[in-house]
Amino acid sequence: METARIARILDEMGTLLEVRGENPFRCRAYHNAAQALKTLPSDLSEMLADGSLAEVPGIGSTILSKITQLATTGHLPAFEKLKESTPSGLVALLRVPGLGPKKIKLLHEELQVASLADLREAGRLGKIAGLKGFGAKTEAKILEGIDFLESVGDRILQSTARRLIAPIFASVQSHPGVIRAEICGSLRRRGETIGDLDILFSSNDPAPVLDHFVKLADVAKVLAHGPTKASVRLLDGVQCDLRGVTDEQFPFALHYFTGSKAHNIAMRRRAIDRGLKLSEYGLEGPDGLIPCRTEADLFAALGLSFIPSELREDEGEFKLAEHGPLPRLVQRSDLTGTFHCHTDWSDGGATLLEMVEAAQAAGLSYLGIADHSKSAGYAGGLTIDRVRAQWAEIDALNQKLGGSFRIYKGTECDILMDGSLDYPDEILDGFDYVVASVHSGFGMERAAMTDRIVRAVRNPRVTMLGHPTGRLLLARDGYPVDLDAVIEAASESGTLIEINANPHRLDLDSTHARKARSLGIMIPINPDAHSTGGFADLEYGIGVARKAGLGPADILNAHEPQAVAEILAKSRARVRPG
Ligand code: DGT
Ligand code: CA
Ligand code: CA
Ligand code: ZN
């Protein structure tokens, strides 16, 4: 059994134990072990064979025996039993904002709540408010939470979609009957969240490829299986559609199934305006089919230059593509370094040195460390003494690196309730840069929250604003804030606003990143990395930037390291002239 799948089962085991109200340490142990499996230094089967897995922190003897069982037999009876005896709706309750395992256990025991529907009914009857430790306010919040969950439906994060589609796509693409294959749909457009997965291939004989697809190990249920297309439900509950076309049809089908629907409709209208007929199978003129080898050929046939998939939302891309080639969008290889990363000085999982090595391995040549500030107690925020100690460690490491790599001293400084910052000015002045973020008081009124953030953004000691809305995709809306007013204030005061690339956040989103750029704000793409694996998330930030139509010049950390150093120094000079 694959390591990733074992990790998922351990995670689910921890969650099941949680909602059953088991000892929190025991639950945590399963989540920790799952996390540890995701970052093993070498192959799991090797580590099991030579006994080195037992030495990995987070993997105790009980869990080790469960991993061994899974790796050798592919089954874990304890897990299967637990899953069978836990109402499946109970786990879904964990997704309700503000509901933790303890509350869920109480709701289950006292009110027999075992699903979202039960929970809504209990709330409607006012029964939740009467429970010990709940109250009317909590009840209202829970009902709001259910509404939120229903509004997001069954969508998944882009990162989940990538993880699920990778093995399936690889398996389709390498099938001997396949000529070309591409991922389509919202994932190719880098949508913030994904409804279902779409894959397209070309072949002279699609049937065997579809037969192969519906039998893949990740498939839980076949929903449809015809001669040119099949739909399945994966073990994780997500739907995946596969379509086969001839190689002549491929560019048309690729364009169609990439969408968006609005973009497709506009394309079809363009074709009609030119006396042509566009469908997912071809482009037809008065004298027959117009051959196209690629999507670029198709766009050209309609008088357009190539439109990158991220821009296909019918939000102005046609106007751009009518006037020659589009400006080049930023790409991952443009990034020279990054800011806003955490270490084990606060709530990160890796040491400073480990983060530096991971950044180097990710092809970066500088790294901004921004651990939490002192009020962020829950996240191990740094006292002033610890800030000074961290500076000393950074200085020492920078010296050792001898100019081959640069570590910047930063902080993710809490924006306090009144909009002031969490360190005194003389400490703030010791950093190379300051990320200011809201981590508290999410319940504030919109006007007060806007004033609070605008005040921070106008503070000349703030280099950049972190995750400006605080949203967590599919989990919680951001705090109420007039983001346009914040962006205008940032533009006036020369403060940057990050695209937080964590796939749970994507904050700024593409719409506001576009607006920020139009007001001359330079944008850093930050992974908000809490572990060495976090640098991979930069790719999701690139997706947001591309969707916003941004090029390398618009992105702070797509500039050469020397230019980045100068931009930071200039920003600091607002408070440290000369
Ligand atoms: P999703 O799955 O909700 O994240 O979003 P998409 O865009 O992947 O939507 P999906 O999977 O339903 O369909 C894939 C693409 O197929 C879609 O982006 C555009 C095209 N498409 C689907 N239905 C229609 C339609 O009724 N009209 C047109 N013009 N295109 C469609
Ligand atoms: Ca889709
Ligand atoms: Ca679909
Ligand atoms: Zn933060």
Within CATH, the superfamily of the largest domain carries the name Metal-dependent hydrolases
Hetero groups in this structure are:
2'-deoxyguanosine-5'-triphosphate, calcium ion, zinc ion
Structural class: alpha/beta
Side by side, the strands of the main sheet go: 11-12-13-14-15-16
Major pleated sheet: 6 strands, parallel
Tell me the domain tally: 4
DSSP strand tally = 18
End-to-end separation in angstroms reads 61 Å
What is the name of the CATH class of the largest domain? Alpha Beta
Strand content: 5-15%
Morphology: globular
Give the count of helical stretches: 24
Give the overall pLDDT as a whole number.
94
Indicate the radius of gyration in whole angstroms.
26 Å
Helix content: 40-55%
CATH topology of the largest domain: TIM Barrel
- The low-pLDDT segments are none
Describe, in plain words, how this protein is organized in 3D.
The structure is a single chain. This protein has 578 residues and is of the alpha/beta class. The protein folds into 4 domains: 151 residues, DNA polymerase beta, N-terminal domain-like (DNA polymerase, domain 1, Orthogonal Bundle), CATH 1.10.150; 93 residues, Beta Polymerase, domain 2 (2-Layer Sandwich); 70 residues, DNA polymerase, thumb domain (Beta Polymerase, domain 3, 2-Layer Sandwich), CATH 3.30.210; 241 residues, TIM Barrel (Alpha-Beta Barrel). It is built from 24 helices and 18 strands. Strands 11-12-13-14-15-16 form a 6-stranded parallel beta sheet. It has a 5-stranded mixed beta sheet with strand order 2-4-7-6-5, with helices on both faces. α1 runs antiparallel to α2 and α20 runs parallel beside α21. The longest helix is centred in the first third of the chain and has 18 residues. The protein is globular and about 75 Å long. Bound molecules: 2'-deoxyguanosine-5'-triphosphate, calcium ion (2 copies) and zinc ion. The site of one calcium ion has 5 residues, from α11.
